[in-house]
Automatic annotation (TrEMBL):
Its EC number is 2.7.11.1. This is non-specific serine/threonine protein kinase. It is found in: Membrane. GO terms for molecular function: polysaccharide binding; protein serine/threonine kinase activity. It comes from Gossypium laxum. Residues 29-89 form the Wall-associated receptor kinase galacturonan-binding domain. It catalyses: L-threonyl-[protein] + ATP = O-phospho-L-threonyl-[protein] + ADP + H(+); L-seryl-[protein] + ATP = O-phospho-L-seryl-[protein] + ADP + H(+). PANTHER family: WALL-ASSOCIATED RECEPTOR KINASE CARBOXY-TERMINAL PROTEIN, WALL-ASSOCIATED RECEPTOR KINASE CARBOXY-TERMINAL PROTEIN-RELATED. Residues 213-249 form the Wall-associated receptor kinase C-terminal domain.
């Protein structure tokens, strides 16, 4: 019966309306940069996300960048479950390319809220014999997974040049982020550094096959963002006071969650 059919369709439509969450109202916060999802606590629009992460990311339309004091690093991936972000500094030397000397410097806020994780190792290369990491601070250097950092001079096209002057390997040091955080490359007296990630899995694997870059580790501030998100809003903050807000639509903000009326609009 055509009328019955029509009724069934209407009922179906009504049921799906009440059973599925409504499409999010248009908040001012973009949730995608290229193919990378942008979720709390990050944002690419001012006033969105958590205030501690303000101005940390820059989206060029297709590519996402992590902004630091020492440069603009490409975001390779964000793992929202593990709360990690892998970044790559295009100006850093790696096993296959030697680039001019430079430092790795994060902003003060970044070094607290999103520092490199412990499975990111820094290799300080071509150090002078007076380097603090060969003397007073030599306990900051370590071997990992059976690797000696001499391997980098032998196993990497980019780093072979460090041997060519003296016919021997200049000192080097594997160390963690804290060392480069507190000492610049000038203080360390090493001409170059490189960094690589997932160091627990590098047993028996040569430096040509390591993954170069940094894995940063962050924590999500506990500000009741879930409640706002469930109500269809996006978590943000007042750009003047930094106080958390729930952004419900381009024309309405709430303190904690978006009102039901707004969701049905
Ligand atoms: C809502 O908050 C955002 C972020 O602070 C701000 O840019 C926007 O102007 C606010 N909108 C309204 C309608 O108050
Ligand atoms: C992103 O970077 C570009 C180029 O460096 C700059 O012009 C722009 O202001 C930045 N945008 C934000 C939101 O920081
Ligand atoms: C290695 O370090 C020395 C200083 O200790 C520097 O003169 C030399 O240029 C460095 N080598 C390269 C290839 O940068
Ligand atoms: C690291 O390895 C090198 C070469 O294999 C060795 O000479 C050195 O004693 C080791 N250092 C530590 C702290 O185990």
């Amino acid at each position: 019966h055509p009328l019955k059919h029509h009724l069934t369709l209407t009922l179906l439509a009504l049921t799906s309306l009440s059973h599925f969450p409504p499409a999010s109202p248009l908040t001012p916060c973009r949730t995608l940069c290229g193919t990378t999802a942008i979720n709390y606590p990050f944002s690419i629009d001012d006033g969105c996300g958590a205030p501690q992460y303000r101005s940390m990311l820059n989206c060029t339309g297709t590519d996402l960048f992590f902004m630091t004091t020492s440069g603009r690093y490409k975001v390779q991936s964000i793992d929202y479950k593990k709360q990690t972000m892998v970044v790559y500094d295009p100006a850093m030397s790696t096993c296959s390319i030697l680039q001019p000397h430079h430092d790795f410097v994060m902003t003060d806020v970044e070094s607290v809220v999103i520092p490199p994780s412990s499975d990111t190792v820094f290799a300080l290369l071509n150090c002078s014999i007076d380097s603090p990491v060969l003397n007073r601070y030599k306990n900051l250097c370590f071997n990992f997974s059976g690797h000696s950092c001499d391997e980098l001079y032998g196993g990497c096209n980019a780093f072979r040049v460090f041997r060519s002057f003296t016919n021997s390997s200049p000192p080097c040091c594997f160390t963690g982020y804290d060392t480069v955080k507190y000492m610049s490359m000038n203080i360390l007296d090493c001409s170059h550094y490189t960094s690589f990630i997932n160091v627990d899995g590098l047993n028996g694997i040569g430096p040509a096959d390591w993954v170069y870059g940094m894995k940063l580790s962050y924590a999500v501030p506990d500000t009741g963002c879930g409640r706002c998100t469930r109500s269809g809003g996006a978590c943000g903050y007042d750009t003047e006071t930094g106080v958390m807000m729930c952004l419900c639509s381009t024309s309405m903000n709430a303190t904690r969650e978006c009102g039901k009326k707004l969701i049905l609009d």
